[in-house]
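Bench notes, afternoon.
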Amino acid sequence: MNYLYLISTGMYLVIGLVLLLVWRRHRAQTFARDMGCSTMFTALLPFGYLVATAAPSPWQVLGVPLVVLGAIPNLLFLASGVMQLSGRRLPQGAAALIIALALAALVLPRGDDKLLYWPLFNMTVLLIMGVLAMQWLWRTGTGVRLVGPLVIALGLNQLLLIVYGEQGLAPNIIFAVMLRALIGAVFMLSALDGALRDAGKMATRFQLLTEHSLQGVVVTDGARILYANPAVRRIYGMPLGIDEHIAFADLPPAAFNAQLLQRYHEQIQSGQTEVANWEGRRQVADGRELDLRFEAWRVEWDGLPATQILITDDTERNANARELLHQATHDKLTGLPNRAVLMQRLNEYCYLTDGSPPCTLVVLNIDRFKLFNQSQGLVAGDQLLKAFAAQLREVLGARAEMMRLGGDEFAIVDPEGGDPRELAARLQQACGRPVRLAGGEYVIDASMGLAIFPDHAVDAEALLRAANAAMYQAKRIPGTALSMAERRFAQMSSTALENEQALRKGIRNQELYLDYQPKLDAVSGKLLGFEALARWQRPGIGMVSPVEFIAIAERTGQIPELGAMFLEQACRQIAAWRRELGGCVPVAVNVSPMQLLNKGFPQLVQRILRETGIPAHCLTLEITESAAVENLEDTQSQLQQLRALGIEVAMDDFGTGFSSLSMLRELPLNTLKIDRGLIAPLPAADAVAVVTAICQLAGALDLQVVAEGIETLEQAIAARDAGCHVLQGYYYARPLTVADAGGWLQRQFSQGEACRADDDEAALAD
């Protein structure tokens, strides 16, 4: 009897293990998992009974726990497996009820009564599950229908225990094992059937995916095409994969590289690589050449190892990529390579270490192209650029490379170290030929800068800078001109850029300030005012000339900011002297032409006067004669607004530009400042005559005259006698710091009214 318990335990374990292995192979068949677990737990029932009856005394107490541990999960997994097989799930409430009733049937009865109550409960659950299984599974396959009757039979098998007690235990176990084996077989067949259905679905899905895929799919054994989808036939234009298997050796070698395919097939099948990728250009049936990309991996086909190849037609994508690359590296208008290509070429040529000849670079800029656009229109300008570029390419030939850097600027590279003079001559010849357009013929002047690597530069960027600097030097020469690079040109360009950046920093850091040069009455020597003069003490460099940094500010558009800063500094200094001394004399501040072009300049001046609190008569604004002539109407309007505020206006550097009587009549001026170039020759007779004429003209227009640049006593006397009212120059004082200028003011206000001098020298040198 004990052997029967052990044999049944082993049988249950084997059946349960087989069902679990089936589930592990096909995870979607969860009913096989549940039935396997149920059978595994059933093995604990005979084993537990064996322990309770035949084990030594200390171990017999484990028999009942083992039976309980096997009985309850057995019923739960059996119920769950039957419901999973019918496409349902065991409700949590039903599971809890089974557990509670099972515990009551196993624990509460005494002794032999357990063999009555547990079989009754077990039979009830199995009969209910069997009837439900028959109802749920009756319309399914014939094999699955047997589950219900078999579960009912398994439940009726409990009658042997109910009727015969322990005497019915042996036949109960035998019939139970047989029924469990049959139920397991049905579940295994159902699992395999489900796996076949899933495989069929996967095959159908694979077919749908591949048959409608835009990418080609080929399955091969290394020598033959076992399968090819319609996309492969469409790509290659051949009836592949329709009838019998086709050998690669029988296909055109330009379309299929049999040796390459065989090599990748062997690598994949041997495990050298999991996924192989390659690409190539293939010629298909109609003679077209396609850019194809291949990706291959190992598969199983009809039970044998094979290789699946995914084929992607990248022809259009690669063509688009090439087009995008061409657009990114070429000028749209002329079709020439652009600046990026130029730098790539220069880097290639400048880093050759094989003894290659020097590389010559020419930067060419069309002169006055903006004027052509303004007069003929942008469309004509584009046509001119295209025609001019074609003309240059024609004379350059095949050796030199030409690029368009942007706008009206081109670059020519000769990587073979030809004679630079010959290249320059050909370019000048091209510029000398008229460019024919629909609207006529035009002769184009161009400025060219030529630089040679390694003579003028050590790398590509330096070579381009050297050629650019030489080109800007050529622009100083009228007509078509070519300038050879020199290191000083690049240094000048580098210095100019450095100064521009330093000036921006200097403005931010308040490095620029004002000195003040006195202006004296020509007769009495009385201090009449100051002229504010801009200064820049650049850190690490020293004093920078105003001529230099004012030109930089005008060129870079910083002059409005710089001029406003100097104007505010001057007004705040006037306010400080006024608070300290109780009065003020006028301070003249120079105004740039670019400031006058700003419509809001009068409002800026008014705001600064209001913020500093100084009277308008304490401020004089000096404008240049050239600024007034170039923008006479705008200047007149701006000056009228300033005069309306009570501000005096002086014309600086008068006599060296476009002096005009009508201009003096039209502009609302207070003062004329004679340029130092007319004062320097004094007291020469002809110079005195010129200054006298200017003073007489100013007197007729009721204008005060200031002579600047007085450096000697003789010049001072001659200027006074010629009619100048105010004198200014090194003879009296160089530009003073704020402290020194304050000393002049203190003396002025401590003396009250200035005393007249007894002689000319005392009056002029006071």
